[in-house]
Amino acid sequence: MGTKITWWGHSTYFIETENAKIVVDPYLNENPLATVRAEEVVADYILLTHGHFDHIADALEIAQKNDALIVANFEISHWFNTTHKYEKTVVLNTGGIISFPFGKVEMTHAVHGSQMPDGAYGGSAGGLVVYTNEGSYYFAGDTSLFLDMELIGNRGIDTAFLPIGGQFTMGPEDAVEAVKFLRPRLVVPNHYDTWDTIKQDPHAFVKEVEEKTQAQGSVYKPGDIVVDC
Ligand code: NI
Ligand code: MN
Questions:
Q1: If you classify domain 4-222 with CATH, what class do you get?
Q2: Domain definitions of the chain by residue range
Q3: pLDDT digits over 79-117, tens only?
Q4: How many Å lie between the centroid of ligand 1 and the Cα of residue 170?
Q5: Most exposed among 51, 81, 89, 226, judged by the fewest C-beta atoms under 10 Å?
């Protein structure tokens, strides 16, 4: 098997490679649209973009059950170590890149907050680029549009997972601008429709992407396989 990526709703993704199962930003049990329960998840790694509840809600449960390695910034890593006595973490801060058996993970910046659910300081919000043998995948996390996305695009991104919900993140119009900077082959919208205040039309977004950029866009339902190569 190569790299398979499944969307579990909101910003939660499940990446499977030949030698690893990886969850990105697990928000399942409290997400009305999720199709998977936290207790069903089998994972070796948990990658976190920032500390907000809708990105880490099920991280501890999945980590404890699977003895999984949590990859997060210094403050979030420390929070799991101290507040939750969960020691199996590795720090990855903005600009850092770490090699794992499945490939590399890089933390980019994001323009957003990162407070933990209990009010603790969560450091800087980030995005993640996951590099496997099959490709490079940019998980923007929660962010506004920022010009440095052009630098992330210089790495050569195969698939960009971008928030389009508005209110908490950039909305569809700015996400189209983001695609121009990132220059990915495929664009996948996320972080919309979970709540009433972030209802969006992902099909209209994808149409705009294909009219205004070189990228292809695709809309998925929670539970769908997005990448399989
Ligand atoms: Ni957030
Ligand atoms: Mn969020």
A1: alpha beta
A2: 4-222
A3: 999 999 999 999 999 999 999 999 999 999 999 999 999
A4: 11
A5: 81
